[in-house]
Amino acid sequence: MDSNQVLAMKALPKSVVVIGGGVIGVEFAQFLIAMGTEVTIIEMLPGLVPGVDKEIATLLQKQLSATGVKVVTGAAVKGIAHKKTENTVTYTIGNKTETVTAEKVFLTVGRKPDFSLLSIDKVGVQHERGAIVVNEFMETNIPGIWAAGDVVGGIMLAHLASAEGECAVKNILGHREAMSYRAVPSCIYTTPEVASVGLTEEKAKEQGDIQVGRFP
């Protein structure tokens, strides 16, 4: 099941394997464990919510485990065997092969742009790796055509799409203004919630000396 199918469920499953420990995966996992569903998360990378500040991601992972979610990281899914009432997911960690069985399997490895109804190939709008190519002014390669939001890929957040749309309109009206992605706010709807803006601590350290503050 993808995230749309999960939201359309008529009844809660007794057990779930969530493939992908990103934002969508951890949000669903925490909700379902609170509703009494047995949850296992399988993530290919060493930790959950990749791209989030490592210290915060580690705290969130501990919180999920404390609520009963089984978290498996560094695992590559090799296959899913479907039966009438259950599904068995096979995955590997290093040279070791493991299996986990659940009533439902959620595939939450991200979303991708969908411009299948836009007929952009008919007019020659350039696209690469599944997203429409735009410059810093949200212009495509075809004069008079701009693009904004999920179709241009990158960070797929509603408020960012709105900002890109505003940037596109300003340029359509003749105001030459570039889109800035320096400080995009984002949040993860877990308990506790995770909110961020700008660089992570790891990315900031790559650019020079920084100060870190912590307070309760």
Protein described:
The chain is α/β, with parallel strands linked by helices and about 220 residues long. It contains six helices and eleven strands. The chain has helices spanning about 5, 25-35, 55-65, 120-125, 160-170, 200-205, and strands at about 15-20, 40, 70, 75-80, 85-95, 95-100, 105, 125-130, 130, 185-190, 195. The strands form four sheets. A four-stranded parallel sheet has the order 3-2-1-7, with helices on one face. A three-stranded antiparallel sheet has the order 4-5-6, with no helix packed on it. A two-stranded antiparallel sheet has the order 8-9. The longest helix is centred in the C-terminal third of the chain and has 15 residues, at about 160-170. The protein is globular and about 55 Å long. The two termini are about 40 Å apart.
